[in-house]
Records
---
Amino acid sequence: MSQQSETILSRGLSRRGLIKAAGVTAFAATAGVIGARSTRYAIAGNLIPIKLEWTEVAACHSPVGFGLAKGIYAKHGLDVELFYQGSSGQTLIQALATRKAEAGPGLLYDWLKPIEQGFDVRLFAGSHGGCQSILVKPDSDIKTLTDLKGKTIGTFDVMSPSRVAFSVALAKAGLNPETDVTWKVFPFDLVAEGVLKGEADAVAHMDPWAYSYEKQHGFRRVADTQTGTFKDRVCCVLGVNGDYYEANKDAIKRVAAANLEIHQYTARHPDEVAKWYFDTLKPGLSLEDLTEVLAAFTYHDHWFGKDLLKEVQIGYEDLKLTGVIDASTDPAEIAGRVTIDIFA
């Protein structure tokens, strides 16, 4: 644990095209999120109530549910209710825009376009790195990202976090992510089938499903969000409605401290979190596999203050490269405006 993290804990703080257009749609959305549901555990005491969104199906979000079940949020003075916002990054924005949640974690890139368009969100903590991968069949001649030129990549949503992230990686590898590759959408649990049947050359998906394709089908990893252009980068970032933050700064500071403790615990005890994930959410992988997945994420790394500010600025620069962010947007200015130094 870093010295900064130890200090924080010791305080006891009780695409161009479719992706760009989707940012507008998500920002303006007023409809409910399909399949959304809430989770609450029995608690006692005079705690601060707050609704946090999460992506229940994502392996990297399982520590959030674990932390609630094990009373870590309550330890920090919070009565947390979890709102399942779906698997698309854009429904994350809908959850906050429609006040079904006040705060929660999401892929850094998913926050940035709606914020540029005026969605009042502040970003206050980076939780981990890794969780998205591009995979191919073991006998594929695709070895690197540049080998994907002219190929079809299967994913589970037209604006999936995997597509957004790897559009950046492709652009930095010298490819146009909209014209040099073809993106094809398959049902969430059938993306691998698209590759096996020859309907796609590669799959872009999140864990634990990406990991399961390696185990079940021998798929080979071409790139992920822990290596290459994403090495030492943040993956998921916690955001909060701007007006909620202004009225509840102490509550959000508690959320940040609780999440720091939860993710540090996960880094040390991935087996315990995996057991909760296996028993409670039943994602369809073995306990051993889930433990291996969680142990691979960089839960020991955290981004606050200047470190988070840097990541947000780089995120805007990345999405300018793919045409998602307007050419006139100043990454440094907007990052400085929307990033909170939560433990200052």
Note: The longest strand covers residues 121-128.
---
Amino acid sequence: MPIWASVVPDLAEKVRPLAGTLIQDAIEAIQDAVPAYRQPMEGKFREVLVGSVQAAILQCFEFIANPSASREDWLAAFRYAGRVEFLEGRTMDALQTAVRVGARAVWRHVSFAGQELGIPVDTLLTVAEAIFAYVDDLCVVAVEGYTEAQAQASGSYERRRRQLLKLILSDPPPTHQALVDLASAADWQVPEEVAVVVLEYRADQHHLPVPSLGRDVLVDLESGDPCLVLPNPRAQLPALEAQLQGRRAAVGPTVALADAHRSQRLARQAMSLVNRGVLPEVQVTWCAKNLSTLLMFADESLVTHVAQPIRAAFADLTDKQRERVSSTLRTWLHTRGDINETAARLAVHPQTVRYRMNQIEELLGDRLNDPEQRFLMEITMHAWNDPDEASQN
């Protein structure tokens, strides 16, 4: 405002008749200098470009005539122009370049006209300073509108994707048309198959980087049950572990899209079994590699029933003896009866393993020779020592 106040008010009246020429030349200069604006002057593009240039030039004249003139109209016009530029897909750099190129074109005409009209050089220099300060203000306002639209679009886009994820995982599954409609709004191509990855809940999960598996992966890291939906599991799963930033995950089986909730349910169950020590504590647990355990633990009462004979056989042992015998049997089962490998894992002599296995044979009888019994023992071993825990689970 102080700069405009130092400009001779008569200048506006002398230059105002040139407004039409100034507007046309500024538009031509913008289209010549900025590739993004080289398109037919029609529709929304013409409305915003012509309207913005016209508003800027006429407001400039207004400030020369009245330095305290209201700023509300041009603020609104350029904030709106910035929003449209984002929505039309042009960049912020293109927007700012266009404003400055247009200002230079206007200044050339004003400078020439001012000299023709005998306007003092000092006054013209003040006008130049005022115009380019004004242009800086225009850029700031337009960029505000651009970033507001960008933030709103991003927030709306992410909201639609989270809604889509929840819709995919709903049980019963949604209608195909409902899914297609929301997928289209979220710019997501509907696949035939998906895999659901359940992530462990962490208090700091909002601050951890989002797994970088591609924009077609749907992500929910905000809820108490964080998960991913992978529409191309074969391509995306191999890179999963490197993207987890230390978080544990359970990968559900690849299923038809309508069965995504089943993939999630199995992945949740697998994560729960890891937390309980039933499945090994690794960074990525694959349901496809643990289907027998998942099948068995679909009915916890059955697990308790199957584990009961082992608990009964070990009931008369002391706690120390029970732990030693249980750990030996677990390792022996894991190594498929390899005495030397069992000894190496337990850090004892192979003869010690043989002695303990003889003791276990006396306790269990022929069960160790029965493949089905060995399989049942292996998947219920977590329930051998603590019947109270087994019954609670």
Note: The chain has three domains: 2-155, 192-296, 300-392.
